[in-house]
Write a structure and sequence with these properties.
301 residues; alpha/beta; TIM Barrel; two-stranded antiparallel sheet; 14 helices; globular; disordered N terminus
């Protein structure tokens, strides 16, 4: 299985530069009370060294939510959360006043063979962590590498099936995008358009990674207007002002997050997770900068 690090290195769509046009319609009300989360992939190296200290520092910065990534090991056995099992992680999060609204789970097997056994095991883990969303973090490898209309329709069918299983277990299914889903297919549609059209709005939500949307030269606000209420979660990270493949702290790059955040209600946003795939400065300083910008400049508009 390719790692997200490999994907980041290999995938990028041409980008001619984009400035998001502010929307004055359906603007969300200011809500500085919304809890700010972090996708723990951002701190993967620190978690591997000292999970307790890392989570303590996350809480000290002010984060209230965390999103787990890939979850619980490849074989769903043993202490797969940095030496902790799901119950131990749940207790540790509680110790530091943290909650986990969402988790990313490795669904490659399910998206390849359609067998739900692995999903049921992962759903049990998600419920142990009191998560609300079970999130598919990436597309099946064959569709990612050679997407077709039929391939994306099959993925949508599998999303709906998994969505039913999640719903019956008190969870909501979500899908996290990258940039390749926005590449036009043989009928000029994009894979993302097919996923939005072919999935049941009551069963499947989307976790919009705003960096990758901008990288694909797509306006997030247009997506919100065309698919109101579908984007329950956001990954919030910024894009370097001179290089669209480089990540940077929120508020220091080219993405017009003020306009995007004014449309949170239109999007149906429930959770904000700061994420930075690659960091050039001290990691906790990086996430502190992003946290402060979101809290002081985006949630207080």
């Amino acid at each position: 299985m390719h790692s997200r690090r490999d994907f980041i290195k290999k995938s990028s769509i041409g980008f001619a530069g984009i400035l998001i046009t502010p929307s004055i319609l359906n603007s969300s009300l200011s809500d500085s009370r919304q809890e700010i989360g972090i996708q723990l992939f951002t701190l993967r190296d620190q978690l591997n060294k000292d999970v307790k200290l890392t989570l303590q520092k996350v809480a000290d910065i002010g984060f209230k939510q965390v999103e787990t990534f890939y979850g619980y090991g490849e074989k769903m056995s043993g202490k797969g959360f940095w030496g902790l099992d799901a119950k131990e992680l749940a207790n540790l999060l509680k110790t530091y006043g943290l909650k986990s609204g969402s988790g990313h789970y490795n669904t490659t097997q399910y998206l390849t063979d359609g067998n739900t056994d692995i999903l049921q095991q992962q759903i049990e883990v998600a419920n142990t962590l009191s998560q609300k969303y079970y999130t598919i973090p990436a597309m099946a490898p064959n569709v990612r590498q050679n997407g077709t209309v039929d391939g994306y329709k099959k993925m949508a069918e599998l999303f709906n099936k998994a969505g039913e299983l999640c719903k019956s277990n008190g969870l909501t299914l979500a899908y996290h995008n990258h940039a390749f889903e926005f590449v036009p297919l043989e009928n000029k549609q994009t894979g993302f358009e097919i996923l939005l059209k072919e999935t049941d709005v009551k069963l499947v939500k989307f976790e919009l990674d705003i960096f990758w949307v901008i990288n694909a030269n797509v306006d997030p606000i247009t997506l919100f207007k065309q698919n109101e209420g579908r984007f329950a979660m956001w990954h919030v990270k910024d894009m370097d002002k001179t290089d669209n493949k480089v990540f940077t702290e929120v508020g220091t790059g080219r993405i017009d997050y003020k306009s995007i955040f004014r449309n949170r209600n239109l999007a149906g946003n429930k959770f904000i997770f700061i994420e930075q795939d690659l960091i050039k400065i001290e990691p906790f300083e990086s996430i502190s900068q992003s946290y402060s910008y979101v809290k002081q400049n985006l949630l207080k508009q």
